Amino acid sequence: MSNILMSVKKIHKHYGRDPERVHVLKSIDLDIEKGESVSIMGQSGSGKSTLLTIMGGLNEPTEGALEIKNTNLYDLNHEKRAEFRQMNLGFVFQQFQLLSYLTAIENVMLPLVTLKLTNKEKRFRAMKVLKRVGLEDKAHRLPNQLSGGEQERVAIARAIVNEPEIVLADEPTGSLDTKTGDEIMNVFGELNASGMTVIMVTHNPVYAKYFKRVITMKDGQLTNLGG
Amino acid sequence: MNLMQIAFSNLIRRRSKAMLMVIGIMVGVATMVSFIQIVEAMRLDLGDRIDEFGANAIVIPDKVSQLITSDMEAIRASEIGIYVNIISPKLIDVVKIDDQDVLIAGIEVNSEFTQKPWLTIGGSDLSMIEMADDEIIMGASTADNFQVSKGDTVTIMDKNFRVYGVLDPVGSEEDGLIFAPLHSLQSLLGRGDDISMFELSAYCNACPIEEVAMVVETALPGTRAIPLSQAATYRDQSIGEFELFGMTLSLVVLMISVLVVLTTMLTSIQERVNEIGIFRAIGFKKRHIITIFGVEIMVISLMGGILGVGIGVLMAKVLGPYLADVQIVEAFSLKLGIQAIMIATGIGLFGSIYPVIKASKLDPIEAFRK
Question: I need a labelling partner for B314 at 20 to 30 A (CA). Which of A12, B134, B159, B347 fits?
Fold first, then answer.
């Protein structure tokens, strides 16, 4: 029985019009199984971040389809797709992307805000994941009162608070030193060990060792499917 | 943690921007409130001035009745008495001078010339003059016809009258009249207390002239009170034009306030593109984004409205006498407060509707573009 969780089918993405048209992704085919930990590597401009945003249902491809849990995401309208993201996907953005006016726990609670949960439940779930990333004692600090590594942990906690099956991370270690980067990679490893599918984009080959599958990209095409 | 809390947290964080919008709305509301109050006071004042300028109704007896001097008191004592400014009684008859028929009007000098300030002698106001019983004022045509001037003597029904002065020509029936003190003409003609008509100047802001006329007819049985449609039309037209002017100016102020909110909101949303991208990426729907911005703009509008009405009332009280020579009697009222909040909300909504819809349509991919 197939264990495929996400299927990228003949995805093509281009920007602009001829003759300035830029082909960012060229006929990408990729299957990701449940529980995999996948790293997508490539030079800057290879199209890896664009692929990640398409895999996250955030960026409509020019051609092709994306199926997650047998749902073609780009057949859904914007609102249904937002709902699907909320229930199934967690995002870790570049440079943390925490809201500076909210405390760590409030940032973590954000994906729960629109769900029909009591404030107590939301707070309980947020605190639970903050504990999981080792930040329960800094829950009420604002982002500017946390170190880079701590902010990254808050961003990861926010990504997993709604217990998604897939966590997508875009260069999460880009602004961290090597030691902190390694710590964050271990957190992703723990998430994967608990059953989450983790897909991370990075240009740094040092982090490849943390992933069971390493996919490489060049000029908008997959050069190695890994696995 | 809910959408309201996100909105409030944002307001606190971006308080300088929020204050800028509060000030924008406050200025708009304050200007409109003060303008509404000043225009309303000016409208009332203009109405009163028009009402004081000439008569707006005449009271005449029917075929079988006779008006007398004391009927004035009955009008003053009636329920519309407080709206009546001037009652000018007149006894009109025809007398012979040098075998020619001439119209003569017995008048109460002060009320007659206060009501008709356009009647002057050598450009001078006549409302405060004192005339002796044997003095008359000649209309311009009559004086010309009989070749008389100030100080001359004119004989009417064997009694000599000294000409107090000759009215400046006005191009109306007054040019062909002779004016004599009322009681002196009543005695000359042997008419006792008889009056031919009353000319009324009533304040019509609070009580329309048609209503005044109806009450006068009830108070004085056997009379007809006729509203002068020309005066009413002139009054309505003048006030209408003034209100149109006021409304146009108010709309200009309103547009400026809406533009202030619009540009500030557009700038604010431009600065928050990344944040909105995060919201969208983690599953917020369009309505959630609209709710956050909606709460923010409602709080800003309420603050702008409350501050605006306070400052507007104060501005009207302070500036009214200087700008428009009017006193603002009515201070704050619930109606005014509700109007101000509605204006503020209107400014906030109109100014933010486009930016908020634009924000709600932002692509979640913006979260990846930092």
Answer: B347
User: Tens digits of per-residue pLDDT, A16-36?
Assistant: 887 778 888 988 899 999 999
Cβ distance B350 to B357 under 8 Å?
no
Instruction: Match 């299957």 to its residue by tokens.
Output: A31
Which phi-psi region, left, alpha or beta, contains residue A45 (left: φ > 0; alpha: ψ -120 to 50)? left
The domains of chain B are located at 3-48+236-369, 56-227
Q: Which residue in the block uniquely carries the two structure tokens 């075929």?
A: B63
Provide, as residue numbers in chain B, all residues whose Cβ is less than 8 Å from the Cβ of A167: none
Query: Which residue carries 């009258």 as its tokens?
Result: B161
Q: What is the pLDDT of residues B45-65, one digit of tens each?
A: 777 766 666 678 889 998 778
User: Could B284 and A91 be called an inter-chain contact, meaning their C-beta atoms sit closer than 8 Å?
Assistant: no
Which chain A residues are within 8 Å of B364, Cβ to Cβ?
Answer: 58, 82, 85
* Interface predicted TM-score (ipTM) of this complex, two decimals: 0.87
Q: Do A82 and B284 touch (CB under 8 A)?
A: yes
Closest A-chain CA to B284: A82
In the prediction, which pLDDT does A2 show?
A: 66
For the record, the structure tokens of B311 come out as 């400052």
Cα separation, B130 vs B306, in Å, equals 56
Contact A54, A8 (CB under 8 A): yes
Any A CB within 8 A of B340 CB:
no
Cβ contact B281–A91 (<8 Å) = yes
CB-based contact A102 B6, cutoff 8 Å: yes
